[in-house]
Amino acid sequence: MKIVAICGAGIGTSAILKVNAERVLDRLDIEADVTASDVASVRTTAADAQVILTSPELVDAIGATNADVVVIDNYFDLSELEAKLEAALG
Q1: Which residues contact 29 (CB under 8 A, 6 or more apart)?
Q2: What total number of domains does the chain contain?
Q3: What helix, strand, coil percent values describe the chain, rounded to 5?
């Protein structure tokens, strides 16, 4: 399974989201390849992704995709991330 964390520039916030998603997936005992990317590269990096994690502001910029787009309001809230990933993957 491939999960892509998207932010505006592809550096800071997507890296934080990536690390926290990996922590949550480990807790849930789910194997996945999690990568961080910027929104400009989303069509390439997320072309084969099952899930895209992003903030509410970037949803429209992602465009059409076959992946489940999961909106995360607080990148530091592992409980929110866990609940939303469980819902998307379950």
Answers
A1: none
A2: 1
A3: 50, 20, 30
Separation of alpha carbons 74 and 6, rounded Å: 14
User: Tell me: the pLDDT tens digits for 1-55?
Assistant: 999 999 887 678 899 999 999 999 999 999 999 999 988 888 888 899 999 999 9
Residue 16 lies in a domain: yes
pLDDT of residue 64: 87
Question: Could you tell me the pTM of the whole model?
Answer: 0.92
CB 74 within 8 A of CB 37: no
Q: Which helix (H) or strand (E) holds 48?
A: none
Q: Which residues form the domain of 63?
A: 2-77
C-alpha torsion 58→64→67→70, nearest 10: 30
